[in-house]
Design brief:
alpha+beta, five-stranded antiparallel β-sheet, 27% strand, globular
């Protein structure tokens, strides 16, 4: 008989505010620490940055009045090789669009998805019925 090993999972609904985005980042670091990746390690620092970018986008571009966003973290793979970060918001009509050109050096925005792309092995988005979307990124745990 095979024993099923369930992946490590964390999910939390948060308010679509800057405070909610900050809390998502802090919860990510705390949860990774509980799973064995201390706050000062590369995995934790990369995950915190990806969560910060994705939740900032959810708060800025994906918010609908009275609706929050959901943060999801899952350790995937046969040897726990990948951390999947998911941020689900209420605005499925506003899909993330990666930049095709670099932002101006003095621009104050426009680098978030470039950072997500640089830190993750892959990322994307999918509809979340009835009206939302989930933006996800997979980070290596090695």
């Amino acid at each position: 008989m095979k024993t099923q090993i369930s992946p490590l999972r964390f999910s939390q609904l948060l308010s679509s505010t800057p405070r909610g985005a900050r809390l998502a980042r802090l919860l990510t670091v705390q949860q990774l620490d509980a799973w064995g990746w201390p706050p000062a390690c590369t995995v934790s620092e990369s995950a915190a940055l990806v969560v910060a970018e994705l939740t900032a986008n959810a708060v800025t571009h994906g918010c609908a009045q009275g609706r929050g966003f959901r943060l999801g973290l899952t350790v995937e793979g046969p040897d726990a090789g990948t951390l999947r970060v998911e941020v689900t918001d209420a605005r499925g009509d506003r899909a993330p669009r990666p930049r095709t050109t670099a932002p101006e050096p003095i621009a104050e925005s426009g680098r978030g998805l470039l950072l997500v792309e640089a830190l993750s092995t892959r990322w994307g988005w999918e509809p979340w019925p009835p009206s939302g979307k989930t933006v996800w990124a997979c980070l290596p745990l090695s």
